[in-house]
Amino acid sequence: MGRPRAFDRDAALDRALAEFWRYGYQATSIASLTAAMGVRPPSLYAAFGDKRRLFGEAVAHYQETHGAFTARALAEEPTARAAIERLLREAAVNYADPAHPPGCMIISAATNCGPESADVVAELRDIRERSKQALVTRIRQDAGAGRLPAGTDAEALGAFYAAVIQGLSRQAQDGASAAELDAIVTLAMAAWPAAAEPAG
């Protein structure tokens, strides 16, 4: 029988996630990962494979934990406007939370990757694109229900709010507080198209 692992795998993954979130994929080394995780390189490789596979697992873990508020807001709110406003306001709190690195890992972890990490860039871009399309889908549902003006461009409106989310992440990384981010959300929601009043 093999020796049992001398570390808590879930706790180690949490620490790896924080390293990737704080420094990005490219700048995070095996040495910094093993130091943060409290393991030796052979244990890291045995438990997680290489750095790339560890990153993929960290991304999935982020989506299931810190980033899960996005899917919840879109699934639980009755209208696109309510869902997107809830998503943005929760992002303002989450991105500025001092309990973890600022901003959104999915937005920031591949910003400085070179050509050798093109697959990492593509993975995170695909996740962001799916998130944007989820916004578009909810907006189209509102348009179909008459909650938005006829001719509303759902793709453009979804892209606008996806851009707001990315901007909130960058502002949080630059030190903006939750209150400052929430004020941006208030302004962004003022851009939501109002449905035409029914004819009297």
From TrEMBL:
Looking at the UniProt entry, the stretches that span the membrane are none
A Pfam family this chain is assigned to: TetR_N
Query: What InterPro entries does the record point to?
Result: Homeodomain-like_sf, HTH_TetR, Tet_transcr_reg_TetR-rel_C_sf, TetR_C
Span of domain HTH tetR-type: 6-66
Chain residues forming the annotated DNA-binding region: 29-48
| Record GO terms (molecular function) | DNA binding
Give the record's keywords alphabetically.
DNA-binding, Transcription, Transcription regulation
Gene3D superfamilies, A to Z: Homeodomain-like, Tetracycline Repressor, domain 2
Q: Which residues form a coiled coil?
A: none
Q: Which PROSITE patterns match?
A: HTH_TETR_2
Which protein are we looking at? TetR family transcriptional regulator
Q: Which organism is it from?
A: Sphaerisporangium rufum
